[in-house]
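Obj: model holo form, ligand = N-carbamoyl-L-aspartate.
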Amino acid sequence: MKINLPKFNGSFKNKSFISIEQLTKNSEIKKIFRVAEQMKDIVVRKKPSNVLNGYCIAELFYQPSTRTFTSFLAAAKWLGAMTIPIHGMSAYSSAVKGESIEDTVRTIHQTTGADLIIIRHPGDNSTEIAAQASYVPIINAGSGKKEHPTQAILDLYTIKNELGRMKNLKVIFLGDLKYGRTIKSLGKLLTIVDKNLQLFLVSPKILKMPKKLVKEWRVRGVKVHETESLLEVLPQVDVLYVTRIQKEWFEVERKLSLYRKLKMVYDINLKTLRRAKKKMVEMHPLPRVGEIAYEVDNDPRAAYFRQMRNGLYTRMALLKLILLGS
Ligand code: NCD
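Output (holo structure tokens):
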């Protein structure tokens, strides 16, 4: 199913944020980052804002989450909004009785007065469908194997802060590139900001990035190199973006024995990092399940804990831009 999502065209006001493809200009990304800097100030100085007083924000999560759920909730609260956080949608909502996502988003607006609804859902097109039916903007907090646009925003913001640039980047995406959604959104976002982007897609053969995306990126001028060997490409890159092997999708496809074989295919420790540049950033959307050893956490290049804090600032910025326009 293909729904045409409205491009932002410079304005976020009252628009759903479903896909990175809605962003087309560098200036839009810079605008989000500018507001994120102001948001950081609010949190660092411990001076909560009331700009979203009177607004109501609902979160409907049909899949597990720690970072995305709590950072959106805290983002809304730091800005003074009322919040309706619902974590157990797939266990306790009327979805169990077979209610459609279209009816659910309309219902949530009516029963709570929500002005914006944040959704995480296992269906690839779930948030598109929700946005079509909803009376109020929807933010995609992770849809199936397809997109996680707000994660991409916080990831790029992290790259910019850690390296001081967003251009001429050599980036590794490592791990489960087939089922993972964060790297698909981040890949799309990087192609907008970096005309000299080089992407190194490192995964077991069976977990490769979908061909369609690789082709799109090549058409846009990105140099894409696919390999199974991390050490072959690690020494030259600026960003090492690690992902976990996504057990839940192997469960759906009844391939758990294959998962057990692949689970520890990459494990990064301090010895691995000796092969990387001194000025390099190591990222992970988290959770990790063994692919990065704890001993790496104190290496200055390990940015994954700083990265998740950036999720709070950038999500505050997105809530403000969508509800207030600036
Ligand atoms: C990611 C997700 O849900 O796609 N987590 C997150 O939002 N930080 C990555 C993952 O679950 O592996």
